[in-house]
Design brief:
about 325 residues, alpha/beta, Rossmann fold, six-stranded mixed beta sheet, four-stranded parallel beta sheet, 10 strands, globular, binds pyridoxal-5'-phosphate
């Protein structure tokens, strides 16, 4: 339901129903269309608000989360922000476990929302702003330890079905309604794969001819079956080099696209300058992949992408020159 037409019981009801915008200024030269789903307009400024709400509501319903029990999860910041919001509203303590490699404004925002934030040192050789699969493994270890110690509920964004279901029932159905199903391709930068997996399943059910393409960092395109030659990249929120993602059903994958750091940075800057859309690195990766696809196919395709989070989350990085 339109979230602006009536009084909502809480900010959790303000999650989702985001606009879909045609990026006509960017596609003017290459033809075709790119439709961008503006997920940074969610209350926590990312698409992970949808996941957080779903994980919490599912767990309360099936009894795996008891009233008042602490909630914990590893996060690159966005799921954590969503969980901090959901926990504030539903009355749970939230503990976010995050790599020191993620941008510090995310930790500040989670703390502002009442969360405890545990920052985990990066692996030897990793650099701030570059979070690798190895860094994530260290965060996972610490999360497992704290989950036991605190008898907390682990809102596992890689395992629990809510991370796919919220996109299958929400994001994807909204896109199908907004476009009337009239688009040719969908491409998405994958972290847990929840967005890609949930959307691809819904799109294929409606129209198997919609091409669903996974976007990965150059040098860490493991889902495409390539060897990892550059595990450390700048596209925060995904590209962790994990080969087995529950959310990805290979039958729904039509292909793989790679982008490098520079493509993602230029993509985000282009989005801001030409379309007035202030978004993060992974939005830059998605727009770079979609523009490449349009240039390569030259067939006037209509491509749907998601803008995962806000550019405000990267003010401390050089994505936006001072
Ligand atoms: C900024 C950003 N982009 C992309 C992703 C990947 O989304 P998904 O986990 O749905 O694959 C995430 C996930 O945390 C993210 O925070």
């Amino acid at each position: 339901m339109d979230r602006t037409s009536h009084i909502l019981p809480s900010v959790l009801d303000a999650i989702g129903h985001t606009p879909l915008v045609s990026l006509d200024r960017l596609t003017k030269e290459c033809g075709g269309k790119i439709y961008a789903k503006l997920e940074y307009l969610n209350p926590g400024f990312s698409r992970k608000d949808r996941v957080a709400r779903q994980l919490m509501l599912d767990a309360l319903q099936d009894g795996s989360l008891r009233p008042g029990q602490p909630v914990i999860e590893l996060t690159s910041g966005n799921t954590g922000t969503g969980l901090a919001i959901a926990c504030a509203v539903l009355g749970h303590k939230f503990i976010a476990v995050m790599s020191k490699g993620n941008s510090p404004e995310r930790a500040r925002m989670m703390r502002a929302l009442g969360a405890d934030v545990v920052l985990v040192d990066q692996a030897r050789g990793s650099a701030a702003g570059h979070v690798s699969g190895e860094d994530l493994a260290l965060v996972e270890q610490e999360t497992q330890r704290l989950t036991k110690e605190l008898s907390a509920f682990r809102a596992d964004q890689f395992i629990l079905p809510g991370h796919i279901d919220c996109h299958y029932h929400g994001t994807a159905q909204e896109i199908l309604a907004q476009t009337n199903g009239a688009f040719d391709a969908f491409c998405d930068f994958v972290g847990s794969g929840g967005t890609f997996g949930g959307c691809a399943r819904a799109f294929k059910e409606v129209n198997p001819r919609i091409q669903c393409l996974i976007v990965e960092p150059e040098g860490a395109a493991v889902l495409a079956g390539q060897p990892t030659t550059r595990p450390s990249h700048r596209i925060q929120g995904g590209g962790y080099g994990m080969r087995d993602l529950r959310a990805i059903d290979k039958r729904h994958v039509d292909g793989y696209l790679t982008v490098n750091d520079q493509d993602a940075v230029e993509g985000a800057r282009l989005l801001a300058r030409k379309e007035g859309i202030f978004a993060g690195f992974s939005a830059g990766a998605n727009i770079a992949a979609a523009l490449n696809l349009l240039r390569r196919t030259g067939s006037g395709q209509r491509i749907v992408i998601v803008i995962p989070d806000s550019g405000l989350k990267y003010l401390s990085t050089d994505l936006w020159p001072a």
